[in-house]
């Protein structure tokens, strides 16, 4: 085996074209880590933010983009007992997924769900870790509650609709076209609001308000989300596609006992991520293996075409997940 691997680097902060093929040394797993031979790598919006220079990777992470992948274990570091060479896994990564090989903590790997290919499995970790920890752990969604997710046709949105529906919540989604709304309904949303034509605040208020909102849009959605929440409702913020700064009347938070919270996955501790992996294996992997939920696949690009994949994602016409074949 050569000591070098093909990878995609961010040559400088900028648009999709700054993603360039390169050669890098194959990394060596340290204690508690595994080396994965990547078959497919998932493409996520945070990769585009990192490429644009708006999302610095943690100091200990690979500077290469890529937060999730599926493939086979190529080597294990000291103290790894759960995995052995040749095991098929999908994994949450600290970075570096756009490459032939990548390192990650062994505890952030999950088995490829029975009956699923590596292509689909590569699209699970980033959105399933994010949705589980924000909607169920942080947001405390319960069966029967009204749940609103914005960006319903995104990687995050398609995951959130399916999981919340499978676990018994009433799901409402927003999306920017009739085609995207139709997909949200197929995935289990009770109502999908085309935000270019209707006001999600009115739709939710007519139902008694949302008990939980998962939002990645921010901007003027913040005050509108507060209006759309039911008494004791919770808002979980996971992104700010329209910006984080806004004027907000906090009296409503006090008077209706609302909770506003949020999180990002990447800077959390290895232990926190390992706990999310354990919960997914117990609660969500059976749903995937029973075929009750599945990642929604948009398109596949070759590793060398990562720039085209990013341009496609930022064009905004995609529905579900984009994947790189390595
Ligand atoms: N906090 C975390 O840990 C975490 C982890 C992963 C992802 N995220 C965030 O979650 C969001 C979704 O990620 P993803 O990978 O699922 O992305 P994605 O598939 O590219 O989805 C972005 C979605 O947002 C909608 N949208 C609404 N307003 C938008 C705007 N002003 N600009 C661009 N898109 C807009 C788009 O659909 P419409 O056509 O319907 O507008 C699109 O479906 C991103 O903000 C990402 O940074 C957060």
Automatic annotation (TrEMBL):
Taxonomic superkingdom: Bacteria
Keywords annotated in UniProt: NADP, Oxidoreductase
Domain Enoyl reductase (ER) stretches: 14-324
Keyword field contains Iron-sulfur: no
Listed SMART domains: PKS_ER (SM00829)
Pfam families: ADH_N (PF08240), ADH_zinc_N (PF00107)
MF terms in GO: NADPH binding; oxidoreductase activity, acting on NAD(P)H
Coiled coil, from the record: none
Protein name: Putative NAD(P)H quinone oxidoreductase, PIG3 family
């Amino acid at each position: 085996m050569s000591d070098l691997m093909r990878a995609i680097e961010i040559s400088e902060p900028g648009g999709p074209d700054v993603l360039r093929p390169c050669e890098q040394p194959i990394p060596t797993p340290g204690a508690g880590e595994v080396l994965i031979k990547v078959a497919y790598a998932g493409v996520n919006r945070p990769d585009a933010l990192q490429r644009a220079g708006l999302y610095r990777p943690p100091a200990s992470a690979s500077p290469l983009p890529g937060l999730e992948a599926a493939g086979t274990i190529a080597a294990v570091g000291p103290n790894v007992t759960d995995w052995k060479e040749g095991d098929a896994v999908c994994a949450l990564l600290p970075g570096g997924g756009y490459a032939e090989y990548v390192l990650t903590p062994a505890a952030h790997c999950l088995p490829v769900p029975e009956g699923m290919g590596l292509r689909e499995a590569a699209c699970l970790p980033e959105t399933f870790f994010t949705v589980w920890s924000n909607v169920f752990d942080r947001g405390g969604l319960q069966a029967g509650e009204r749940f609103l997710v914005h960006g319903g046709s995104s990687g995050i949105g398609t995951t959130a609709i399916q999981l919340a529906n499978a676990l018994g919540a009433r799901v409402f989604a927003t999306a920017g076209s009739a085609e995207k709304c139709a997909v949200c309904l197929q995935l289990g949303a009770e109502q999908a609001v085309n935000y270019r034509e209707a006001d999600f605040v009115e739709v939710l208020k007519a139902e008694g308000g949302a008990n939980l909102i998962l939002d990645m849009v921010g901007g003027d959605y913040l005050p509108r989300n507060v209006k759309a929440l039911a008494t004791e409702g919770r808002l979980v913020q996971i992104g700010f596609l329209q910006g984080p700064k806004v004027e907000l009347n906090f009296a409503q938070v006090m008077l209706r006992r609302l909770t506003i919270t949020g999180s990002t996955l990447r800077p959390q501790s290895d232990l926190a991520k390992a706990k999310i992996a354990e919960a997914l294996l117990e609660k969500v992997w059976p749903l995937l293996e029973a075929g009750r939920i599945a990642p929604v696949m948009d398109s596949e690009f070759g590793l060398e075409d990562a720039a085209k994949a990013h341009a496609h994602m930022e064009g905004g016409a995609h529905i579900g997940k984009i994947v790189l074949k390595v």
